[in-house]
Amino acid sequence: MELVVEVGFSAITVQMLAERAMVNRSTFYRHYADIYDLVEKVFHNLIDEYLESAQSFMPGKPVETLQCTFEHCATYASFYLALLSEMPRFQTLARDTIEQQSALFFKSIGLDEGRTAMPLPIILRHWSTAQMALTQWWLENGQPIPAVEMARYLWELYESGAVRQLGLPIHHSEEKLHIHL
């Protein structure tokens, strides 16, 4: 992880990793297919660690669970920020992981596609990208807001949406949703 922080993901070579780990390149390739494979395994280890620590909060305490998420990301801020900023493949992996965990959360509280106002994949994509975007902003800006407040803000956005948070009037019609500015 330190190497990602020091030189950025795109500059890392297998040779650099092997030297840092004091092993031969062949040893690296015995364990990993390539650098992406290594990063994905590190990411999955971090997610397993996070899920273990967040288990006590789910599913009845969403703000506490999100706080745990922000705290976890703060612990590994440089790693997550480097990968979210430089690696589209990692962004997709992170988004898909959030979607999978969110789908499990929704299922655990009895929500399924038949009980939602729109298709669940749309909700999951919105949910995951909002969390990723806010987390990336938070990390890029040096975590200017405490994790507990970020968790509350994100939950409020989930609960009532950006339009309501901005105080914009909403007018519904059968055909279209009109927002008057």
Low-confidence stretches: 174-180
For the sheet with most strands, the description reads: 2 strands, antiparallel
Shape: elongated
**How many DSSP H or I helices?**
9
Helix content: over 70%
Average pLDDT confidence is: 85
The fraction of residues assigned to DSSP E strands is under 5%
User: How many beta-strand segments?
Assistant: 2
Give me the strand/helix succession. Answer: HHHHHHHHHEE
Rounded radius of gyration (Å): 19 Å
What is the CA–CA distance across the termini? 46 Å
Alpha-beta classification = mainly alpha
The main sheet orders its strands as 1-2
Which tags fit this structure?
mainly alpha, two-stranded antiparallel sheet, elongated, 181 residues, single chain
Blueprint of the fold:
Blueprint (H helix, E strand, L loop, with lengths): L1 H6 L6 H8 L3 H7 L3 H20 L7 H14 L1 H10 L1 H21 L11 H21 L6 H20 L3 E3 L4 E3 L2
Antiparallel strand pairs: 1-2
Helix pairs in contact: 5-9, 6-7, 7-8
